[in-house]
Amino acid sequence: DPFIKEPIRHAALIPASEKPFNAELPPTLLVANFITPNELFYVRNHLPVPEVDPKKYELEVDVEGTNKSIKLTVESLKKLPKHTITATIMCAGNRRSEMTEVKPVKGLSWGVGALGNAEWSGVLLRDVLISMGIDENSNFQHVQFEGLDTDPTKKPYGASIPFWKAIDRKGDVLLAYEMNNEVIPRDHGFPVRVIVPGVVGARNVKWLKRIIVSNNESDSHWQQNDYKGFSPGIDWDNVDFSKSPAIQELPVTSAICVPSPNQTVTVRDGHITAYGYAWSGGGKKIIRVDVTIDKGDTWHVADIIQQDSAEPPQHWGWSLWTVQVPVSKNAKEVEIWVKAVDSSYNTQPESFKNIWNLRGVLSNAYHKVPIKLQW
Ligand code: MTE
Ligand code: MO
């Protein structure tokens, strides 16, 4: 069993699969903290968690087509300037279970909890590349990452990001060795993972073994044949993965975390109260969260409870919100809907039907939560 050396996990995490381990937090706990505690951060592993001896650990950085190559230990990374960002990491499959209701898709059945918000500290990948003589003017297209976790054929988990994101002064791509001021836990990439803020979870490679500056994308399964979006008209009999680009920046999304679906809610002073999160990729900030309980006839603007102070295009964290909505007298049930708007005025689509895709990714339609009312 390749999974016998897995870390111990917090009992509050709800498993979506055990081997490999994948789990999310219940929605009420998810929005209890602006900074998600390490032990409560969702886990998305494709393979067994590797065991790494930090004393022997070395991260290799290679530049394709040149003899430039360096090896970095955790100690040598710690000697470089330390940089900290608040960033939300979200799986491309977050909220997939809602899309499944339209028509089945292939993938883990995530609820609204396949994301977390943490403070990540480490070294800017840009600083490491500049120390190797690479800068904005260098002619490379991609930066590839390989993890220490391998499949049964010994191929590592891998992904890549565009070169511009890695070298951009405002890209904030981190070789992170701390999560919320602690050593990164094993499940989240000990001892070093790359944090690519604003970009889909899949590119935030954990247990980083090797970085390759290249003209090509990663050839890994997860870059080429997964984590891509398609038209609702494409299904497994006619899909061609080479026809869609790999997902990088994620679109705007939001969710209602309190109350839960089908919960009985007590009406107070003629109002109900809801709580949730909203987030957008690409360094965009949430500028508004709209809520309705009458299918859009009346909209209410939620209050942002907490949000990072960084401005776009470097706003990487989620926003927590709350709203009080008046309910009409003696109503017995209502459906709460939410949609968020980001700093580019992007907003969410209304229905899953028209964004359905065979892998159930980019599942960001309005979140709709039916509840019962008690007066
Ligand atoms: N990195 C490695 N090496 N192996 C993996 O399986 N999963 C990716 C990414 N990085 C993965 C990885 C995916 S799909 C996601 S959503 C995030 O890690 C999840 O990060 P987390 O487990 O720290 O929440
Ligand atoms: Mo993911």
UniProtKB/TrEMBL annotation:
It is an enzyme of class 1 (oxidoreductase). It comes from the Eukaryota. The keyword Iron applies. Its cofactor is Mo-molybdopterin; heme b. The keyword Mitochondrion applies. One of its GO terms (biological process) is sulfur compound metabolic process. Its EC number is 1.8.3.1. Keywords: Heme, Iron, Metal-binding, Mitochondrion, Molybdenum, Oxidoreductase. It is found in: Mitochondrion intermembrane space. One of its GO terms (cellular component) is mitochondrial intermembrane space. GO terms for molecular function: heme binding; molybdenum ion binding; molybdopterin cofactor binding; sulfite oxidase activity. Pathway: Energy metabolism; sulfur metabolism; Sulfur metabolism. This is sulfite oxidase. The lineage of its organism: Eukaryota, Metazoa, Ecdysozoa, Arthropoda, Hexapoda.
